[in-house]
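task queued by scheduler; priority normal; single chain, no ligands, no partner chains; default sampling; output format set to structure tokens
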Amino acid sequence: MTTKLYHGAAYYPELWSADVIEEDIQIMKEAGINVVRIGEFAWSRMEPEEGKIDLGFFVDIIKKMHENGIDTVMCTPTPTPPIWFTHGHPERMYVDEHGHTMDHGSRQHPCTNNRYFREKAAIITEHIAKAVGRLPGLIGWQLDNEFKAHVAECMCSGCKNLWHQWLKQRYGTIEALNSAWGADIWSEAYLSFEQVPQPGFAPFLHNSSLRTNYQRFSFEKIAEFSDEQADIIRKYSDMPITHNSSVMFHVDNERLFKNLDFASFDTYATYDNTKAYLINCDLWRNFKKGRDFWIMETSPSHSASLESYAVPHPNGYLRVEAVAAYALGAEAFCYWLWRQQRAGCEQPHGSVISSWGKPTVGFLNVLEVEAARKAIEPIITSTRPTQAEVGMTYSDISKAFLKTEPHRKLHHRSLVTEFYNLILTQGIHRDLLPEGSDLSGYKLLFTPFLPYLSDELLSRAEAFVRAGGIWVVGPLSGGRTEEHTIHTDAGLGKLDQLAGVATLYTYPMDGTGTMGEAFGVSSPLSMWSAVFEPLEATAVGTLQQGLAPDKAFITERRLGEGKIVMLGSMPSGEQGEVLLKKLIDHYTTDAGVTQRTDVTSGTIVAPRHGNGFTVWFIVNMDGKGGKVTLPQGGLDLLSGEHVPAGTMELGRYEFRTIRLAAKTI
């Protein structure tokens, strides 16, 4: 149970003089900042010359913050190794797919798999942990910063050697690799593991097995680096450890957070793209089930760099952004950054105060967040986020598959976000579930855009269905093996048999003139699609016109106490959205989902539960106001007023907290 809500900012005291630091601390106290994150880019301040490490400055900062009632999250500075590490040592640097070797500067320029980098990273991490690990005021750790945000898979010679070792571990023999990859294609068969290339620059396209597996190799290696740092810190500190990540980065977040203590993320979604903000809250809540997540970075106004900038938030938005996060399971809401940077590549980025120490355009909104935090803290700390009855599977492994096979530039994050938004806008309380998640307590599960479905996931999903759940699978799900090859036993492998269908064809629907009819709606169909012949299933949606008229693209099979529903193609356009919403509505009703409201689009209901009671956080996020029907009367926990059952209206960027009976969501 969370005992305190944090309102924080990233801070870089190494960039400022002692008098500026004193000024900053005083303004932080006035603004209600109760936690700072420090150190992630400060390696050169900690170790200006190789082997000469001095952490005294940061020890003093943590102590000074603590004396002023401000806690600290300490970071490891490994995204920015100093010039002594990089100068004259290209073998230590990141190499991109075109063979370009990074030079010193910016960040994430080293190869994180380089042996010497790992040694030096371990040494500085241990020194930091020893120096500050037991200090009063230290409440947590962040490893590095935004793993693989600016870079993807490294193609250096050191990584090539590690790649070969990884392949040996995975396949055992080169014959097994050749067989799994179908390597006789284009004479790609290898005689030894040492001959297997990295998927660098090529005349056309690399073998899908090669490219997808190299991504998975990279995912595992960055997670191993995270694990190494965490193991060192735990020798000297009992404080919880995290990393600030994103679905945009080239990592497998489920694997990354496996051995960390809590999950945190960065978000710079603009005010008019709230679905991209909310999806992160609904996902990160489930990476460490039962442990509140942190928003480690978001802008108080706008994001920007030397080359770009985003539209600033309108007044009032930041407060409801924070309230929504806390209601959906955040323990902390933190800004990047506190004082505007006077140098470097992110000088224009939004901040709480300017580089000359005055309030920025977002400052008054920060004060509004602090007032809201104080008001809702007793409510949040006495309740927990309510587990949803509806889940949607999320997979970073699938992100790798779609990077290898994007068809017409399919973008994993966009696909997932748009499908998620169909659930969100229908007032359905939802969880975004990492693919390894326990499915206990859910009634309805959507699994779109997972080209590869593991045997383990299929087994859990089957058990979920047999116990009474409804599983809606697709589109673009199940058509590839673990090695990113096509099934040879059935179109969608084991899923065909489980779903009671025969996959007749798979082909792109775009441009074929095909219409899909289901739930009384006719819609164009799109994307790479699967067409079914129901065997032990029933056709729910059929094709009209096109290449396979009268065949099924939606099927339903009763299995045990539940159902498996196959969605073989993506309805598109306005009618496609109507059809998908009809599908979601139908199976939400069929599954007996109760955690649903008639809240208007742009406003959300975030349910939380306490000891024998339920609280609705109702938050307008689009600035247009909204409304929702209260199923019964309740108590407004902020005003103390009783509110009747029926329609409740909210104004522009308004939020309400209503305590209801336990039987309501």
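post-processing summary
- The first helix runs from residue 18 to 31.
- The longest strand covers residues 501-508.
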